[in-house]
Amino acid sequence: MTYLDKNKTYTLEEFLLYVKEERAELYEGTPVFMAPASFQHENIIANLSRQFGNALHGKTCYVFGSNLQVVFPFKNEKKGKDDVVVLPDISVICDTSKLRNKRCYGAPDLVVEVLSPSTGRNDRLLKRNYYEKAGVKEYLIIDGQNQYIEKYVLHENTLKLEEIYTSENQPFCSTCFPDITFSPEDIFSFQEND
Q1: Measured between alpha carbons, how far is 64 from 167 in angstroms, rounded to an integer?
Q2: Domain 37-67+87-186 maps to which CATH number in 2.160.20.60, 3.40.470.10, 3.90.1570.10, 2.30.42.10?
Q3: Which domain of life is it from (predicted)?
Q4: What distance in Å separates the CA atoms of residue 19 and residue 3, rounded to the nearest whole number?
Q5: DSSP assignment, residue 21?
């Protein structure tokens, strides 16, 4: 049994061969291991998945959870190991030709990341840059601790912060999928015991 070494870099092919054993993402050749999610994190994802699934039911777009590997085959002649593989908490994909070999090759239409202490920096910086470069149309960052949603929308190849939703302001409404609308408090229902 072969495992990924966090101190080595990998090609996309090598990573996909070894990652079957572990839960990890690939950032330009470097494996990044995923910590188990908290109960609050999982509850937010479940609540969002229900909202998204209900809104898109009967349409030609599909909602996927965090087990879907999303592959961005970025190429940089200098490095050679530039591919990126991410595990978004939620992906909405309308172009099913991107779905093959149990993965998504290319940009989902909408991506959601729920922040956690171990991934917050990557979600805000690295992954946002990857999503922007790949052409993700809408990116949501959910902060369960502080109970808000940041909505970024792709304008002229740049993911720009369009709105921040809290329980105190208007309901959330997706820019790309107007049928996806809900009150933020509906997704922040679970509070963990310390």
Answers
A1: 25
A2: 3.90.1570.10
A3: Bacteria
A4: 7
A5: G
Which amino acid, one-letter code, is at 42? E
- One-letter-per-residue 3-state SS of 128-162: HHHHHHHCCCEEEEEECCCCEEEEEEEECCEEEEE
Q: 29: alpha, beta or left, given left = phi > 0 and alpha = psi -120 to 50?
A: left
Listed residue (103, 105, 112, 143) closest to 49, CA to CA: 112
pLDDT tens, position by position, 104-131:
999 999 999 999 888 888 889 999 999 9
Token pair for 180:
């996806």
Under 8 Å between Cβ of 41 and 114: yes
